Structure formats: structure tokens, C-alpha cells
Amino acid sequence: MPFTDSWLRTRLRAAPLGALALAALVLVTAFLAAALPRAVDRYEDSALRRAVSGAAPRDRGLSLADDYRTSDGPGADDRLAPATLDREERDFRALLRPPLRIATDEVVQGVRSGAEAEVPDPELPRTSSHAPGADLVAQAGLADHVRVVSGRLPRPGSDGPAALALDGVVTEKTAQVLHLKVGQTVHMTKFGATPLSVLISGIVAPRDPAAGYWTMDDDLLAPLVSFPPHLMISPPETYWHFTVLIDRTAARSIPLLGTGATMYWHHPLAAARLTGHDVPALQAELAALGNGPLATQLTTSTKSPSLHTVAGVTTVLSTFAADRTAAQPLVLIAAVGVGTTALAVLLMAAGLAADRRRGEIALLRSRGGSLRGIFRRLVTETAAAAVPAGAAGTLLALLVLPTGRYATSLALGALVTAAGALAMPLRATLRVRRPRPAEREDLVALRPSRRRLVLELTVTVLVVGAVTALRRRGTADGADPFLAAAPVLVAVAAALVLLRLYPLPLRRLARPAARLRGAVTHLGLARAGRASSGGQLPLLALLVALTVASFGGSVLAGISHGRDRAAAMAVGADARVDSSFPLDAKLPAAVAKVPGVGEVAAVRIEPHAANQDIPLNFALLIVDDPAAYARMTRSAGMPAFPADALGARVAAGSHGPLPAVVSPNIAALLGGSRKPVETGVGISDIRSVATLRSTPAVAEGEFVIVSGRQLHAQHPRLAVYPQYGGPTLLLAAAAPGQHIDGAALRSVTARGSSPAAVLLRSEQRAALSDSRLQKGARGLYLAAVAAGAGYSVLALLLSLMAAAPGRLALLARLRTMGMTRRQSRRLVLLEMLPQVLLAAVGGVLVGLAVIPLLGPGIDLAALTFGGGGPAVAPSPGAGVGLRADPWSLALPSAGLLLLACAVLLGQAWASGRRHESTELRAGDRTT
Predict the structure, then answer these.
(1) Residue 695's closest CA among 742, 727, 731?
(2) What's the CA gap between 330 and 11, in Å, rounded?
(3) Which among 353, 566, 616, 812 has the fewest CB atoms less than 10 Å away?
(4) Where are the domains of the chain?
């Protein structure tokens, strides 16, 4: 042990910069490795909490509900007593187990009348002949959630029989709208023998209108305009619906209305304590409460068989789980990519360190040093730098990114620390295990060994298996590391292939270059061919980083294109004015004058149910101007509309079949025959002349498109009336370089005689923006790409710096022979650029290759539109898949080449600033 300590002190004093460099590399790598799972947990937890807290009030947790029926018999009204409700609440809470936690201070419980009662008092305002309606609500905690504006709170109910007269309060808004005053009595009747008399004892204002106490039901804060059941042929009569709040002890009077009562307990989840990894267990607990063993226990403990649980938060959790499953492959690909690149850089740094000390270690071995002793001393040396650095990096990640879980971070940090401490000792020890004579190890001269062949075949099998599994299974489960490693494995296989092919062009170019006039080209190619065969790791690191960057770019480009496509399919143009009734005859001209509108196409849509002639539901599209509709289709990026196929105007009164452009299913039904179709202006025969899979006027479904001019020429008598032949849809395309003014378009549409909806493609596209979970996954992927780029740059610099001493010595010798600075710059570029160019071109080719290889197995629909379904439903023909992104393909490779050129030219310039004697002595020590 004393000898080991002296060895450690001697080595650290002799090479402090090497130890510091290793410590810095391990610290950064350990920090990134430990931070990755914590970053995932943080954005998942934040997304889940935001989703739950931002959901509708009843969708933020779970609710209990129980029904009281008037036929339950005498004494059953004890179920409405506050003590009974409180006891059932305690029984429910006793069943809750983590991770199911509720916000106890936000629980809302109470009793509501089973059905709306009528309020026939003539002094109350009415919107029609229908009398106002009201509900009685006895909600716990009334005094804590209101501020008395006038009057007083309702008096508690008596312990005797249920009273027909009781006190109640209403909110300020309710009193204002319905002209209610303190001391006024309203009468409520439904099926009971005698109306209930409710004295308005006070008018109150909510202390917090946004609290769940007021938002669980939408009629507590203010009255609503409601519609009674009515026949479709008669217009509905509106009426006011409002709520009267009574003391919870008076809930026994509610059944006197004859409508029964509903008991409820609303339990919002404690959103601040939700974590993404608890979602499966949380869903299991909710399922057990809904229809499982916990539901049975609840029914048994409360002795109420009708008590049931409604978990509105289940939809939020399911949407979150689907979004997370969709985002996991992207995160795993990033993690595997940056991890592979970082491991390659660690091994590369260890290899360079072992190469520098090969003579020293070989001398120790030749003087009787055992492999175990050499390995132990080298491990002691590297561990002195790597272990504290790895611990510091891991601890820093734990402190910077606090989360509830740390086991994975500790394991990854320990793995990086072990790799940093063991890589160099293992490499150096294995090299001196058996004495070998000195031999050339450059790329051109070295012949691949059998061991390398076995390794290449193993990687090939893994690549084929990963690609095949990904194409067959897809990424539906979202958490298979083997499938996520497919892009990295493709990059590794490409690196092996390129290393196999790389010596061939160098050998072919060496002889012609030797016959050239100057010696620079021949010498540069010869030096490139004599590069160390240890260049596999730099090429591997660069290819993996470039592949991950290009793959991420193709994913993001596919998502963006899918959303653009979905918005275009939903709107059909840059703007859409749609109505169920014929539009105002002046509206097309008015829309054409809206700022930003370049062209308008008018279409009449007539829905048709299946019949004996065409046994499919379809939409008949009557296009006024087929040429304008074709231009609109082209501007929307949809399949070209064959306007010429509809032919020219037919003669007035002609009864020949109209040429029609139809959907594929309609075309199969029509064949070559003609079929009659009933239109608003009359019956006409149609025949199929062309087929389209999609069209701007209808987002999905079957369709038949005919020319309005031809149809109206066949039926001129009714065509002149807008209600029979006028358009119901306007499609507007933006003028070149302009945007349609949505406010102006809506203003023009509102002045028309028919109600119409206005849709803008830009607004529909904005509705498809990333959710918080998708933003987190995208941000993490971009951070991983940036980290991978940093490691690839480090790999490039290490590979250039490894050969720097020998290169500088060579330039010094050549300068003594008369080589100019310009020639020295050419020489260093010819020496190193082939390898860098190999990595850059290989990265572009692999980035392009992964799209057809992996594209069929990667479905971006969930990542594009979210697990809860898209805000704009995409058409079935609007596939969402990988798309090549030129920027992510070209920029990293171009940056790699520029960096290599800058470093090499800097080395050539620095060598010219130093004395040849210094360089030659340095070269002697390094060669």
C-alpha cells in the first residue's frame, strides 16, 4: 500500500493536466447521466400537475354520488343528515392509499334536489311563457365560502319532521337577474302535494369564485338560460334556471318536492403531489374504487348499495399516459444516442492515454510487473480523479434537479464513474498481456482480424433484429430500449461499413497521386492512409451524434408536416366560411374584399343518405367554378382537382349525365354506369370521370363533385333561387405574401343573412401546438442532441490532437526542406480531411437511410396530435411519418467540416510560429 500511495503521488505530480482532464470529462458525463432521468421525471410531473389542475372541475378528481328516492320509506331521510354524510366521507377516506391523495381542504359535499322544480311566482322575470326553474342545494361549509352582502345566512333546520318552509340564500348575480330581495318568498313545486316556501334570508357573494365549491356545478354562481324539451318542428322556449342555497341541516326538506335527492362528495386530487411514475398505480386505485374490491368495501362500510364512484380524472390520466407513451421513444433514442457518444469519447480518451503510456507500461511488464499489479496501480491513479468527479457530478444533478426518485440517477452516475476509472487500465493492461513485435497499425496496412469479423457480424445481426422488430411492432409500447437503439445501431453498422470501405479509395488514389508534379498531394494521401487504426471510436462517436441529430430533425419535421396537413384537411383552404343553410348571395363578393383574401371558391354541399342507387352516405359538392376550385385545391396542398374532366357548359335543358369527380368507394359503385342524384334544383344523372381520395370541401367521407354551371343549365327554373342553388361554403385562399384578416372575415360573415362558422387554417394549426409533455420531450431531445454534438466535437478534437505532435514535427522537417506555409496548410488538410469528410458524408447518408428503414415502424400520430385526440381531426389519408429535414442533415455535417478545417489550419499556423529545433525535439520524443 505505501508503494501504491507513492506511485499515486508521483503520477499526479507528473501529469496533473491529464488527471484534471479525466476528472472534468467524468464529472460532466456523470452529471448528464444522472440528470437525464430526473429531467424526464420533472417535465412529466409538471405536465401531469398542469393537466389535472387545468381540467374541468369535475375532471380534477373523483366524486361519490348516492341517490335518495321518495319511495325509500319513512325514516330514510336520515341518510340526508349531515352526520350521515360526514360518516360516509370518513369511511371513504379510510380506503384511500397512496398514490391516491385528495386535497382534503377542497372537498365539496352536499345534497341537491333530484330534479328541477318550477317557480310559478309571477314577480320573477321570464324569457318566455315558461316558468323559471330552480334547484335546492344544501352544501357543507356555506358560511366559510360566502360573504353576506345583505340579510343573513339561512337558519338551521329543526330536528322534527321535514318543514315545508325554510330559509335560503342566493348569490348577488342571481338576485340581480331575477330581481330577488331579502325577505322575499319563492315557491317551488314539482311532484309534491304542497309547494315548498323558501324565504330569501340573505344575498351572498363568493369569497373565491374560482374555488371548487362554486365551480363543480355551473349554476351556483349565476342563473342560466335553459331550454325545456320541445318538438323539433317548434322553436324552443327559454327560461331562467337558478339555485337556492339552504343550510345543510335542512336537506331533509328537499324530498318534499317529490323529485328525490342526490348526495354528492367531490374530491379533487392533490395536484401538487402527483408524479408521472405514479400514474399506473393511480389508475389501478381508481379502477378498484369504481368497480373493484374497494368499491365493495365502500358499499359494505356505508351500508348504501347505490353509492358509487365517478372518477372524472381518469380521462386526464389516460390522456397523459398516452402522450407519455408517444414521447418515450423520442426520449429513449436521445438517451441511447448521447450515451453511446459519451461512452465512445470516454473509451477514446482512455485509449489515447493508454497509447501515450504504452512504452512505460511495457517497460514495467518486461521488468516483472504482473498484470494484476499494473492494473491495480493504474486503477488507483484513474480512480483518484474519476471517483470524486463522478460523485460530484451525480450530487450536482441531484441538487440541481430535485425529484422524488434518485435510484436510477445514482446507478447511471456510478456506471459513468466506473467506466471512467476502468477504461484506461483495462486498455493498457490488455495491450501488454502478451508481448508483440512492433508492426504497422494504420488503416491501409492493417488487415481485419477474425475477432473484428465476429464483432461486425454480431452488430449486423443486432441491427437487422432491431430494424425488423421496429418495423413490425412499432413504438406503441414506447419503452423498449432495444427498439429505441435502432438508429444508434444503424449508425454503428454504417461506421463499420465505412471503415471497411475507407482504405480502398486511399489505395486507389495513392499511385496516381505519386505521378503528380508536386509532392504535397501524394504525401497528404499517404499520411491519411497511415492514420491509426484506432480511429474507429471517433468515427463511431461522430456518426452516432449526426444520426441522432438528423433522426430528431426528421421526427420534428414529420410532426410539423402532419399538423400542417391536418389543419389543411380540416379547413380546405386558408379560410373557410361554412353554413348549414344557403349563404347570402352578396357574401362571396364581400369575402373577396376582405384584406388578405386572394381568391374565393363557392361550393354548395348537399348531404345524401344511402339509397338503392348509391348505397353509401355521401356529400354532393356543387362547384360554381371548377377552375377556381382546382386552384384552391392546389394551394391547400391536396391532390390536384381535374377541372377539365368536368367538361364545358352543357346546353340549357340538356338531360345527359353530368361528369362527376368522386371518391374511390363511390367510383367502385358507379363503375361505368350512370346513376340519378337528387339535388336542390332537380334530379340529374351522374357518371364518374375521375377519382380523388380527398378534397378541400369535405374533410372526410364519401363525396361526389359536379359543376354548378352544368347542373344549373339542366334545371334553370329553380337555379335562379339562392335557397335552392346558392352556395353553403366559401373557401378563401390568401393573396401571395399576405395573411387573411380573421377579424374582418368574421365581421363580414356576421352581417350575412345566414349563420355561418369561420375557420382559419392558421388558427387550426395553432391549436395543434405541443402540449406541456410534448414540449418537455422535445426540449430534452434537443438538449441531448446538443450534448451529443459537444461530445462529437470533443471526439474530433481528441483525434486531431492525438496526431498533433507527430504532425507538427513533420511540418518542421518539411519546412527545413523548403515547404511553404501554403503547402503546409494543404498537407494538413489532405491528411485529416478524408476521415472527417467520411464522418460528415456518412452522417448525411445514415440520416437519409434511417427514414425508409425505420419510418414504417414509427407512428408519429400520437406525438403529433396528443393522446387526447387532435384538436383538428386528421384525414385518414394524412399520414404522419418521418420526413427528411435538410437543416438537421446539412448543418451538423457542415459544422463538423468547418471545425476540423479551423483546428487543422490553426495547428499549421501555430507550427509556423515556433522554431524548427523545438518542433524536431518534440517530434523525437513522440515518435
Answers:
(1) 731
(2) 44
(3) 616
(4) 1-51+320-438, 115-258, 580-755
H runs (alpha helix) in 572-625? 587-592
H helices of 636-737, in order, are 664-670, 708-714, 716-719, 722-725
- Return the residue matching grid coordinates 430526473: 38
If residue 342 lies in a helix (H) or strand (E), which one and from where to where? helix 313-356
Residue type at position 570: A
Runs of H (alpha helix) within 216-268: none
CA distances from 497 to 457, 470, 471 (A): 11, 22, 22
pLDDT higher than threshold 80 for residue 433: no
Give 265's strand partners: 64, 109
Supply the pLDDT for residue 389: 93
Contact assessment for residue 121 and residue 187, using Cβ atoms and an 8 Å cutoff: yes
State mean pLDDT over 6-10. Answer: 67
> How far apart, in Å, are the Cα atoms of 534 and each of 14, 87, 798, 803, 838?
26, 75, 12, 12, 15
Tell me what pLDDT residue 837 has.
79
Distance of alpha carbon 79 from alpha carbon 590, whole angstroms: 64
Count helices and strands in the chain by DSSP H and E runs? 32, 21
Asked if 264 and 212 count as a contact pair (C-beta separation under 8 A), the reply is no
Q: Are 709 and 624 in contact (CB under 8 A)?
A: yes
The string of pLDDT tens digits covering residues 434-445 is 666 555 555 555
Amino acid identity, position 15 = A
C-beta atoms surrounding 163 within 10 Å: 15
**Which range among 440-449, 479-488, 605-614 shows the weakest confidence by mean pLDDT?**
440-449
Give yes or no for a contact between 614 and 666, defined as CB atoms under 8 angstroms apart: yes
828: left (phi over 0), alpha (psi -120 to 50) or beta: alpha
DSSP letter assigned to residue 105 = G
Report d(CA 516, CA 532) in Å as an integer. 26
Got the DSSP string for 728-785?
Answer: SEEEEEEPTT----HHHHHHHHHTSSS--EEEEHHHHHHTTPPPHHHHHHHHHHHHHH
Check residue 156 and give its pLDDT: 85
Q: Which pLDDT score, from 0 to 100, does residue 585 have?
A: 84
Tell me if 539 sits within 8 A of 562, measured CB to CB.
no
Region 826-844: mean pLDDT is 76
SS3 label, residue 617: coil
* Residue 249 half-sphere exposure toward CB, CA atoms < 13 A: 10
Mean pLDDT is highest, among 5-19, 691-705, 799-813, for: 691-705
| pLDDT score of 233 more than 50 | no
Higher pLDDT, 806 or 787: 787
Cβ(294)–Cβ(95) below 8 Å: yes
DSSP 827-882: HHHHHHHHHHHHHHHHHHHHHHHHHHHHGGG---HHHHH-TT--SSPPPTT-----
Q: Which helix (H) or strand (E) holds 279?
A: helix 279-291
Q: CA 276, CA 761: separation in Å to the nearest integer?
A: 34
What pairs with residue 688 in β-bridges?
Answer: 660
Distance between CA atoms of residues 247 and 683, nearest Å: 67
Mean pLDDT score across all residues of the chain? 81
pTM for the whole structure: 0.80
- Cβ neighbourhood burial of 159 (10 Å; 0-12, 13-18, 19+): exposed
CA distance 119 to 646: 62
pLDDT tens digit string along 77-127?
A: 678 888 889 999 999 999 988 899 999 889 999 999 988 889 998 899 988
CA distances from 544 to 468, 493, 537, 706, 844 (A): 20, 10, 10, 54, 11
pLDDT over 90 percentage in the chain: 17
| Amino acid at residue number 268 | P
